[in-house]
């Protein structure tokens, strides 16, 4: 597959080394990992994402399965599926999930008394974990009822853009380091000044932006959550 960076691909073919390694990394598909406890609807959600046209969607083994280690959350985008309020293993997994590229889905929203209840569970999940959370009906039995799928698809697409932006940022940093270090300095510096590298850099800015916004949002959510839980009567 091609990286979409023709100039880099040409340089990589010519000098190999770091340029080749980076062009290979940039050409790899963004992997969407669907994860959660057994029976929450990972397969149903993976199906929704595949039908929406996301390329590389994989369903991981179940979180909190008896006698088995939890799967690594190593997808470029992690879609964490719940079927109601998160339990302790879910909260723990969500807290170590990659920032800005994880989306939590409260699946089986059709089993809640009403759509607003599913929205509330999602908002509480988001407050508790700092991960963006949305309700969804993955396996639709009543086609006319709300299913939240369009919003979920948009959120996963946004996470995919952040993942791509981070990949661009890492690629540029690696090339800059290689330029500073070594024998291919002139070629690599030439590349870093090219229109193509400037385009990569502008894609990478997305990751910076989202990162900062995300940290602010997370801090705010955590504060709100602390205020709420400290005023709850228990
Ligand atoms: N009511 C309802 N059932 C669902 C939904 N999504 C999945 N299911 C059902 O939940 C069960 C487990 O779903 P599956 O996708 O196989 O879960 P997995 O084990 O996490 O892959 C199946 O019987 C599905 O039909 C949903 O949104 N609403
Ligand atoms: Mg399954």
TrEMBL record:
InterPro entries to which the protein is assigned, alphabetical: P-loop_NTPase
Highest taxon listed in the record's lineage: Bacteria
Protein name: G domain-containing protein
Source organism (scientific name): Rhodococcus spongiicola
């Amino acid at each position: 597959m091609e990286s979409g960076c023709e100039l880099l691909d040409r340089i990589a073919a010519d000098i190999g080394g770091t340029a080749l390694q980076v062009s290979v990394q940039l050409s790899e598909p963004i992997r969407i990992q669907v994860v959660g406890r057994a029976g929450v609807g990972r397969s149903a959600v993976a199906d929704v994402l595949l039908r929406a046209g996301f390329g590389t969607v994989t369903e991981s083994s179940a979180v909190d399965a008896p006698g088995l280690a939890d799967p690594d959350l190593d997808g470029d985008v992690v879609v964490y599926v719940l079927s109601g309020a998160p339990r302790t293993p879910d909260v723990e997994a969500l807290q170590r999930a990659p920032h800005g590229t994880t989306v939590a889905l409260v699946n089986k929203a059709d089993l809640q008394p009403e759509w607003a209840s599913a929205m509330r569970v999602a908002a509480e999940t988001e407050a508790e974990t700092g991960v963006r959370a949305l309700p969804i009906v993955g396996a639709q039995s009543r086609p006319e009822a709300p299913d939240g799928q369009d919003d979920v698809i948009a959120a996963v697409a946004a996470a995919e853009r952040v993942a791509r932006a981070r990949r661009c940022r890492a690629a540029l940093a690696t090339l800059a380091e290689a330029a500073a270090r070594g024998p291919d300095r002139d070629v690599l510096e030439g590349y870093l000044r090219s229109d193509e590298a400037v385009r990569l850099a502008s894609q990478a800015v997305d990751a910076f932006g989202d990162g900062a916004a995300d940290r602010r949002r997370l801090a705010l959510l955590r504060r709100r959550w602390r205020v709420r839980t400290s005023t709850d009567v228990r």
